[in-house]
Amino acid sequence: MTTSGNSPKILVTGGAGFIGSHTVVSLVNAGFEPIIVDDFSNSERSALDGLRAILGRDVTCYSVNCNDAAAMEDIFSREAPVGVIHFAAYKAVGESVAQPLKYYRNNLDSLLLLLELMPKYKVSNLVFSSSCTVYGQPEHLPVTEQTPRLPAQSPYGNTKAIGEDIIRDAVRAQIPVNAMALRYFNPIGAHPSAEIGELPLGVPANLVPFITQTAAGIRTSLTVYGNDYNTPDGTCIRDYIDVMDLADAHVQALKKLSEATTGYSYDVINIGTGRGETVLNVIKTFEQETGVKVNYVIGPRRPGDVEQVYADVTKANQELGWTARRSLGESLRDAWRWQQKIK
């Protein structure tokens, strides 16, 4: 699979990461030419091999830190992109609590640099990787884009809220950028080829890689934090979205931004399935889909955990023409195939 030399180039910061690498595939499938910028501080170079296997060719990749102003300016000058998808950020909640300044400097400085370089090189379209963490524990479910944001539970979450505010204020100040912040819910799964997937460094912070590592015998057991919440089975509820659906949403967001004909705009859109699943139901579904038992224990509630959150995705459906298509079972089968490959 190839794209022509005339394909519009999209700068994908953090493009070797979990969501970024899958978005690279969706971009190529949609006729774009992705240009990856990744310093591999939280990703593996093997993702580039996986992309080559899927796409049948190499993808241009710069091994650069997105805070390196000279290197980033050189990339803008050399590649002349028409848009940017900004994934690159530190994302470990616990580490952000212990090292807040590291997170604020990395996550915010990289965004500020992009917003300075984009007008200089006449790049007008920006898709920003945000998060449903900005909603905290909402009073009403499902959450819409009008649901009030609540104070972040971690410096990591705060960098997403501040990032949204920086973009909003820049657009209000007439910086020539059309921007969209996509508030992700809980990405899971892997590419169906099992050539790319989630590669957590160290102990996984997310549920599904912990399930697959436990099923594979890498972890002895999975702890379910709390079973006394006000939910059908007492465990927390989240909105789990397949990473390929999430990747496709970025392509639709770029297309929407490129259609803008008047002025400059900023918008936020929820990207989820619109359904909530309990932790125990995810485990049960994994066991049903794979035939593999998961050794889990019930532990105490974890401080800071939100009881339940899931998206209203009406805006994404209507304004992006996008909807989540892959089932929970499909996502878990793909995640398990990926785990078996990397085991």
From TrEMBL:
Enzyme class: isomerase
Record keywords: Carbohydrate metabolism, Isomerase, NAD
Keyword set includes Isomerase: yes
EC number: 5.1.3.2
Pathway(s) this gene product operates in, as recorded in its UniProt entry: Carbohydrate metabolism; galactose metabolism
Cofactor: NAD(+)
UniProt xrefs under InterPro entries: NAD(P)-bd_dom, NAD(P)-bd_dom_sf, UDP_G4E
GO MF assignments: UDP-glucose 4-epimerase activity
CC per GO annotation: cytosol
Gene3D superfamilies: NAD(P)-binding Rossmann-like Domain, UDP-galactose 4-epimerase, domain 1
Domain NAD(P)-binding: 11-333
SUPFAM superfamilies: NAD(P)-binding Rossmann-fold domains (SSF51735)
Quaternary organization: Homodimer.
Family assignment from sequence similarity: Belongs to the NAD(P)-dependent epimerase/dehydratase family.
Name of this chain's protein: UDP-glucose 4-epimerase
Species assigned in the record: Spirosoma endophyticum
